[in-house]
Amino acid sequence: MTPDAIEKRLSESNYATLQQQDELLAVDIRNPFAKARIFLQGAQLTQFQAKGETDLIWCSPTAEYQAGKAIRGGIPICWPWFGALEKNPGEISSQLDDPDAAPAHGFARQVQWQLDHVQDLDDHTEVKLSYQHRADKHWPFNCLLSVRYQIGKQLKMRFIVSNADSNTFHFSHALHSYFPCEDILQVEVGGLEDCHYIDTLQDWSEQTQLGTVQFCAEVDRIYTDVPARLQIHHAIPQRSIVLESDEHHCAVVWNPWVDKSRRLSGFPDDGYQSMLCVESANVLQHVQTLQPGQTLAYNLSISLV
Ligand code: TA6
Question: Which of 10, 88, 168, 246 is least enclosed, having the fewest CB within 10 Å?
């Protein structure tokens, strides 16, 4: 999509501008309710701050903005699989001829999406992007992805997958949301009490969550069958981020802690102290299946209370 074509779409809104950060183009929204930045690569939101509030979303200060390379932070769209392909159920991994060459978290966050429209409404600006995939060795199915952001007092996101192929396909996915915190030692994630989870750091063993999730070491857990509402509580200053979604049945909770922070690209060595991920997902037994011509939509709203 050429910058001129993007500018034409942006002219439909009073609050949208085109920005470039290193190799990547982004849409900035500055409306009366909030400010946000959405990169065309991966349709990835990297900033959201409601008027008069602190940042709702975290993005690494050392993130790299290079074509084809995932941006560290914001809300990466992980599709058509979550994590390492070989760790996904067979009905997903068996769809590719060369699973070893598959990128972690799929390819949707690495490709250029099209900006479809930017529209100012009464209490938000809507930004819609899409990506049309033609069957290839990376994913042998014709399909259409679209995402619609509502930039208002709340951040709302609707991710839609349509099967434009003559074959059924299966996928897993996650909205890999990064959140800021003043002090990771003061953070608790609520809503996951008594949920079953897979601890990827303990040989993918099955565990049960006792009380809230707290952080004093690396955490990398896949919770399954989670409630529609999760909260990230921070003690001082007191604030809670609420995630609500009826269509995501799993949640991934991650903090890299000291050692992994040093290994991660585009991530400061002390980054673990001021961020955490709570990712809205459908993974493992929640494999998603799309028949030819079928569409599935996944909503997520994120707000500060
Ligand atoms: O969602 C948690 C996780 O799978 C972690 O294991 C870590 O790898 C993180 O995602 C980041 O993955 P990325 O590919 O963005 O570096």
Answer: 246
Asked if the model's pLDDT at residue 2 lies above 90, the reply is no
Q: Whose CA is nearest to atom 16 of ligand 1?
A: 264
Q: CA–CA distance from 275 to each of 185, 227, 267 (Å)?
A: 11, 22, 11
Q: Write the single-letter amino acid at 11.
A: S
Nearest ligand 1 atom to the CA of 83 is 4
Cβ atoms 213, 149 nearer than 8 A: no
pTM of the model: 0.98
For 136, residues 6+ apart whose C-beta sits below 8 A from its C-beta are: none
Alpha carbon of residue 285 to chain centroid: 20
| Lining residues, ligand 1, CB within 6 Å | 70, 83, 104-105, 176, 220, 252, 254, 277, 279
Between the CA of 174 and the centroid of ligand 1 the distance, in Å, is 11
